[in-house]
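ERR on first pass: missing label on line 2. Operator R.T. fixed the label and resubmitted. Corrected input:
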Amino acid sequence: MSEQQLFKVTIDNITVEVPAGTTVLMAARMIGGDVTPPAMCFYSKLQGSGGKCRTCLVEVSKGSEKDPRPMPKLVASCRTTVMDGMEVKNITSEKVVDARAGVTEFLLLNHPLDCPICDQAGECHLQDLGYEHGKAGTRYEFSRRTFHKEDIGPYIQLHMTRCILCYRCTYVASQLTDNRVHGVLDRGDHAEISTYISKAIDNDFSGNMIDVCPVGALTDKTFRFKNRVWFTKPVEAHRNCDKCCGKVTLWNRGDEVLRVTARKDEWGEVKSYDGKTGWICNTCRFDKKDLKDWTIEGPARIARHSVISANHYVDTIKPKETIQEVMGGRQPKLLMDIHKVSDVNDPSVDLSRISGPATGATFEKKNA
Amino acid sequence: MQLTQRAKQVDRRPMTWLESIYLWNIAKGMMITLRHLFMKKKTVQYPEEKRTFSKVFRGLQILNRDEQGRENCTACGLCAVACPAEAISMEAAERQPGEEHLYREEKYAAKYEINMLRCIFCGYCEEACPKDAIYLSQTFAPSNYGRDGFIYKKQDLLIPHPIEDPAGFAKARGEKSVTN
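pass 2 clean. output:
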């Protein structure tokens, strides 16, 4: 089999040729843009993921060239492989738009909507989904499910109430780490991510489950509450790591490295390098919170519709400072040093040195 | 070319002797001055007397508390990102066990500052707030001799505690309902 068979598939009236065995979702991603169905559970870099959240439902209006009957129900595009001559309707189908709004409502039934305190806010796929495909209100009248808070180790913070049970984190654990210690316990409404008998998740590469989590159920404990993502400055950097590729995005505030994540592509998935997915190890993610550890490559590219891109400018031209020339070489007189008055952004408080979230005591001035 | 009907041709004839002593014109001017003496005054004696503001007046920000005195703000940063003047900044912290009576949610603003030198009182912070925590009140920032007096911190912005100062809390809340 030297030559791969190519199938023609038409998605929203755009035809593309893809190799046999490609899923409809991946074919749509080749076209890109609005044609691509959203995906909450499917992760192209994790084997076996997908088919759970139903947000990627599409209508197949023509099965294939040989059998042109439409598929009777909406199908999950992440699990349906293309057939030759298949015609798929995504946003051009009213049924799909309606079904997706319904699925979004279902996903948000038990979601606590604590975005103001959630560290994922601003880069949350459920926020994007709700914004783009959801309805403004909910018809759910009952109290949302709650769980006992569980501590799953020093690095990862679990918020089970926010979980949408996409199972991505369990795939990360089985496929990347040497020994999986967590999974999904119980069934139905009570299903929850947990470790068996409160074991800490500390095996290497386990931090990647933070990156794959589409919501704020698994977040970085070393970044917890330190800053909102849109106030941090994403910078691409690398270091020589013997365990992983070492290519990361640093989320800085000034010179403080508040958070380290893997680099993401346009679908919110971890980027690949030379065919290998750029997962990063826990040492790079949690222990290298110093600019000296990293070689900076430049600012990370953020989609311009993202809130993270707010007030982040690239390719700006700084105007020439003329005050010194006009004043005969004298520096301008500062009327107020903001750090003398302000308690925020205090240079003596370095949040990147704290392993967990800050407390009130962190900001008490020592000499005040 | 005439744009309006009100334009008058200026009389350029030389003044007569009676006109040149301006007696009649002075009397006319004094009539206007005297009439204003008996008209309703448009000015107020400011510090003693204050004008009522419009219902939608946007004044100094306040930070809200709930009925139990817990701070509403969770330091979500939406006011700061909405602020066109970048006047708002904050530091978030995690609520510790035993601090449940102080802060309503798990995360709170340990430090919250509004730079009143920067603030343009546009009210976007109030609009952005998902937690009912920040409001623009009916007062404005008092003048100050130094710049450092305009960095308003959390204790300057918080409304009185409902249990420690019920009257102050009611006033802070009540002034809002009067304006509604």
